[in-house]
Amino acid sequence: MQRQTQFIFKQGFVYSIGNILIKLSGVILIPLYLRFISEEEYGVVTLFETLFQFIMILSGFGVKGGFMRWYHDMNGEDEKKKLFFTSWSFNLSTSFLTISFAGVFLFFFSYEIFQYQLEVSTILFFLSATFFRLLFDLPFYLLKIEQKAVAQTGWLFLNISLLLITTFYFLEVEKMGVKGIYLAQLISHSITFVFLLPLILRSIIPSFNKPVLKSMLHYGLPLAISNILTTVLTLSDRHIINQYQNLGEVAGYSMGFKVANLIQMVVIASFITGYTNYYFKNLHNEDNQALFQRILRYFIVIVSLGGIFIVLFSPEIIYIVSMGSEFFQASVPIVPVLMLGLMFAGLRQLFTLPLNKHKKTRRISIILVVSAIVNLGGNFLLIPVIGKMGASVSTVLAQLFAVAWFYAEVKKIEPLQFALLPNIVLLLAWSGLVFFGMQFFHLPLLAGWAVKLGLILAFIATLFITGHINKEELGEVKIIYRKITGRRQ
Are residues 247 and 182 in the same domain? Predict the structure, then answer.
């Protein structure tokens, strides 16, 4: 099991490099945006991001999830290539339909959505860039499934490099504003797709497998429908803030979310991507359940430790990213609340794996939709009263509701050993240390850092007290670290 754990962590480490590149590009782009566009226009960019996420989930009608689930069930490389051709060509068609629908919607209702007058060329650049991004989404899935983390990270690096160069050019040199942001995305995504064409062509055999496609749609469509509804309801917070407050409040919420989302991009997504591929590949192995429970505990340790670090240093992170803007310091109080929501969301993603194993996709869909409705209701109740903090609180409550329900469902189908009391104690300790630390954000830099580091050490001690870490595993962690970094004893 130690070798399995090492492999999962090594894959997760490589994926984390790619995710760090994504966040680093964001750290570079946000100051660039704020230099050349107003805070109101940054709110527009934030709303475009929510539309992009909605389009990403809508395209494919759940085939991407089915592709991941069915890939290792195929007999031989030829069958896998036929499956990829079937999935990619279907995804191409549905992506075109989705972009067309989104285009009609934006051309007629853009002002109602953004409360801002957009140029037609900006909408066209956004839609075209999104379409090319969708075209290389499934090849990225293929690289993940085949556990080619290094190759996928390399392609990601190419895409991000192109995006940074072109964005800088259109903002700094051409002074194109919001329109330049999406023209840069169009160029970088289209070039990345062209470079990926040889990989796509090598991975296909032109044979459309209708029976398997029907099975994948039967498996993935309930998830796709629930994900669409969940995305609409969950991402509605930005739009509700815009309707009840203003684009400046949207921008402030987005800044707090981006800082908290560091844990999702760098830790949660990397960890879950590395483990999910391994989980499905070894779905029927006897050790899979025992490894799942061990991974669950490791995940809680990593995400809680990373989360408290980001929260305690959030004022410094926001100061750097916003180039010292006082306006965005108002986003600091919502970071710990959003962080809790993201931590619960990560745990929820892990709990979906056993349900996917038993093909309980309809039950997953029901939970996601109901929790999204809880989130939406909370937004309408709280945002008019306390603005972006209301959206943050609503997110936490909805994610906690979802993770509790998923836990109950997993317990019904598999003998899950998940001690509630130690995890509740850990959650209370995390919250208490974060609240205590926030009272010292006003201290001078060095004194504040000393307090924060002391609180992080206190949390590490709590991890030992609650049994999430033991001394024997520290030696294993050192071995895993050496394996990942290539160091010898």
Answer: no
Nearest alpha-carbon partner for 12 in 217, 303, 240, 227: 303
Residue 477: Cβ within 10 Å count:
14
> Of 221, 243, 272, which closes a domain?
221
From residue 322, alpha-carbon distances to 254, 318, 327 in Å are 12, 6, 9
Buried/exposed 364-374: b ≥16 CB within 10 Å, e otherwise:
bbebbbbbbeb
17 lies in some domain: no
Residue 377 exposed, middle or buried by CB count within 10 Å (0-12, 13-18, 19+): middle
Q: Does residue 163 belong to any structural domain of this protein?
A: yes
Q: Tokens 């660039």 correspond to what residue?
A: 32
- Separation between Cα atoms, residue 294 and residue 283, nearest integer Å: 16
Phi/psi of residue 53, nearest 5 degrees? -65, -40
| Residue 427 neighbours by CB distance under 10 Å | 17
Rounded mean pLDDT, 98-111: 89
For the stretch 444-485, pLDDT in tens is 888 999 999 999 999 999 999 988 887 766 665 555 545 544
Report the alpha-carbon distance of residue 254 to residue 118 in Å, rounded. 20
List, for residues 80-91, the tens digit of each pLDDT value: 999 999 999 998
Phi, psi of 41 (to 5 degrees): -70, -30
pTM to 2 decimal places = 0.67
